[in-house]
Each structure stands twice: as C-alpha cells, then as structure tokens.
Design brief:
This protein has about 240 residues and is of the alpha/beta class. It has seven helices and twelve strands. The strands form two sheets. A seven-stranded mixed β-sheet has the order 3-2-1-4-5-6-7, sandwiched between helices. Strands 8-12-11-9-10 form a five-stranded mixed β-sheet, covered by helices on one side.
C-alpha cells in the first residue's frame, strides 16, 4: 500500500493527522483551512470534503478520515464501485479513541491499515470482518502474504466460500503447492475445515465449499463450479 491520503477537518483532528503523518511518512496529509497553518507537513484541504475527495478517490490506495463515520459513509456512497478495485478506507475519531475499517477491509487492506493506525495513535482498532474477528480462514486473503495469485475464476465463488467458512459448513482446503504455514492463529483449525493434498478422488457433494492451492494449469474444476476458490503460488520451473 504505497499511496495513502489522510484528511482532517478540525483542529483536534489535525493533531491526530500529524501523528499519523509521522507514523506514515509517505502519506499525504490534507487539513481544512481552520487548522492548515497550524499543522506541520500538511496540504490544504479545499472544502467541501466530498468534492475534494471525489476528485482523487482512485488516485490513492487508501484513505484515512479523521471525522465521524456518518460523514464518511455519505461521502463514499457515490464513489464505491467494486471490492476488487475500491481503495481501503479507515475512519478515526478526532480524539483517537477508535480506528474503524470502513471499506475494502480484506483485499484493499483496510483491516491491516486499521491496526497500523490504531498502533500509531494508541486507539482501539475496530474490524468487523467475520473471518478476522472469529480468527478463521479468509478465502480471499489466504495466500496474499505469501505473494500467491488469486485466480480470476474464483471471483464468482468468493462470497459463497467465505460464507461457508464462517457459517461452520464443510470446507475442503486442497493444497498442492506453496507454503503450508498459512494458519496464523494460536488455536486449532475449526473442525468444519478439512485439509488435503488434492481434489482428485474427492466427492464434491461432500463439501459445501473448497479452496485449491495449486500451480497446475490442467485441472478439472467443472464439478466444483460455484463453490471453489483457487490460489496459485508462484512457481519456478527449469527445463
């Protein structure tokens, strides 16, 4: 996440913005005229905030708003397009009590950024993504930290597979390649999740959803349509 914008519209918010700027030195800090001249390292924010943000919403990977969540919700409504491309959005109150993941929590990185923001200003991070709060497998983030590629054929199935995981339905994780140390929690994996090394010979009717980790191109995925997410680790083949 390289491009981050921080917005502060009050004097107290500007103080929190300065702290965030120190912790995220490559971020751009925008401050409203009421506090612009008092804030070190800031750029002037031209009000109204909604118009200012709409002009540069897609120019940043993430936006951090130091203001009420209601303001952010109303402002984001006409700007949201797709969870695969929307930037991350985090909201911080001006007293730095709570840092809240608002948009693109998983794939956009807002959940991770929320924890970073909370750490910098000593706030309480608020993340409501089901797989995160329950410390479970995330279908659309499983291989991200290893640099694995989420196969585009997975897009129609991500929602149903994610729902199966958090609703304790039967889920198969078949791993044929890549780092197997992806379980990151200090507890046992939920009993509804079964790990195996292949899809071959597995009855697709016995599982509500599946995740396949493979570098093989020729695989019959037809029986698993609608309930399969495919991750592809990077592989190097020398001939």
């Amino acid at each position: 996440m390289n491009r981050i914008a921080i917005y502060a519209i009050t004097k107290h918010g500007a103080k929190q913005g300065e702290k965030l700027k120190r912790g995220l030195p490559f971020a751009d800090l925008y401050v409203a005229p009421v506090a612009y001249e008092l804030t070190i390292g800031a750029k002037q924010l031209d009000l109204p905030l909604s118009s200012f943000v709409s002009r540069q919403f897609t120019d940043y990977d993430a936006h951090i708003f130091i203001c009420a969540t209601g303001i952010v919700m109303r402002m984001l409504a006409p700007l949201i397009e797709d969870k695969r491309s929307d930037p991350a959005v985090v909201c911080l109150d001006e007293q730095a009590t709570f840092a809240i993941s608002m948009l693109s929590g998983h794939r956009g990185g807002a959940n991770e950024l929320t924890h970073r923001v909370a750490h910098i200003v000593h706030a309480t991070p608020v993340v409501t993504t089901a797989s995160d709060v329950s410390e479970n497998v995330s279908a659309d983030m499983l291989g991200a930290r290893f640099g694995w590629h989420l196969d585009p054929i997975s897009e129609p199935s991500i929602t149903s597979v994610s729902a199966a995981i958090v609703n304790d339905e039967s889920v198969l994780i078949a791993q044929q390649a890549g780092d197997k140390n992806w379980w990151q929690y200090d507890k046992r994996m939920p009993a509804n999740i079964l790990c195996h090394d292949t899809l071959e010979g597995i009855d697709n009717q016995a599982f509500d959803a599946a995740i396949l980790v493979t570098d093989q191109q020729e695989i019959d995925l037809e029986p698993w349509q609608g309930k399969l997410v495919v991750w592809r680790p990077k592989s190097l083949v020398l001939a």
